[in-house]
């Protein structure tokens, strides 16, 4: 199996953590590719060129949730909420939506200041704070090793992006229950070692 990714992609981070925690880390080859470049090797496999992208023989998957579900099938473990358990699916969807909003905000902040949309930034600020309040009220610090689920990893990846881009500097003081939850997940090596970094940051061209 091969995962096309960029290190600072929160969606790729989720897939990488899932593979490691499911015991598939050594079976997953990683190929760091550029974003939105016409010579991306991903385009020959998937015409939209989106990442993360998992290729395993004829199977090509380009959505993080689908990739993690595929890894679940390979490992025999369960990280993605099964359809039918609708409360779990709904909670997972909330975390994924939170990650999507943080990603929009962080992407906008990577643009030149003169090119940023004040409307998008204002909306993202409001939505992210709502998401933080929701997670702060609903997540509890795990006892023992934190459960590795797709929904939890969406929140982990969103918080990682939020901290890396300093979107809400005082979030820990404002949402202490969520901060404690996040700290518990940071004890996992796969999570601590995959945080966004300046070394992996590349300019957003378009």
Q: How would you explain this protein's 3D organization?
A:
The protein is α+β, with helices and mostly antiparallel strands and 206 residues long. The chain has 2 domains: 2-79, Glutaredoxin (3-Layer(aba) Sandwich); 86-192, Glutathione S-transferase Yfyf (Class Pi), Chain A, domain 2 (Up-down Bundle), CATH 1.20.1050. Helix content is 50%, strand content 7%. It is built from 8 helices and 4 strands. The chain has helices at 10-21, 64-75, 86-109, 118-138, 150-164, 171-174, 176-185, 189-192, and strands spanning 2-5, 29-32, 53-56, 59-61. It has a 4-stranded mixed sheet with strand order 2-1-3-4. Helix 1 (10-21) links the parallel strand 1 and strand 2 (29-32). The longest helix has 24 residues, at 86-109. The model has no long low-confidence stretch (mean pLDDT 94).
């Amino acid at each position: 199996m091969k995962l096309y990714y960029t290190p600072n992609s929160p969606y790729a981070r989720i897939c990488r953590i899932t593979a490691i925690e499911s015991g598939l880390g050594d079976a997953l080859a990683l190929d760091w590719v550029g974003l939105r470049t016409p010579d991306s090797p991903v385009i020959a496999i998937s015409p939209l060129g989106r990442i993360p992208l998992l290729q395993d023989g004829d199977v090509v998957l380009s959505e993080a949730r689908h990739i993690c579900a595929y890894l679940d099938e390979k490992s025999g473990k369960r990280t993605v909420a099964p359809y039918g358990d609708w409360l779990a699916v709904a909670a997972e969807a909330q975390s994924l939506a939170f990650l999507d909003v943080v990603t929009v905000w962080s992407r906008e902040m990577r643009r030149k200041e003169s090119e940023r949309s004040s409307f998008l930034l204002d909306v993202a600020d409001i939505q992210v704070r709502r998401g933080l309040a929701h997670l702060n009220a609903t997540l509890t610090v795990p006892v023992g090793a934190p459960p590795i689920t797709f929904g939890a990893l969406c929140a982990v990846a969103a918080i990682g992006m939020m901290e890396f881009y300093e979107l809400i500097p005082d979030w820990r003081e404002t949402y202490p229950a969520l901060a404690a939850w996040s700290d518990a997940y940071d004890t996992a090596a796969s999570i601590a070692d995959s945080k966004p970094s300046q070394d992996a940051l590349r300019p957003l061209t378009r």
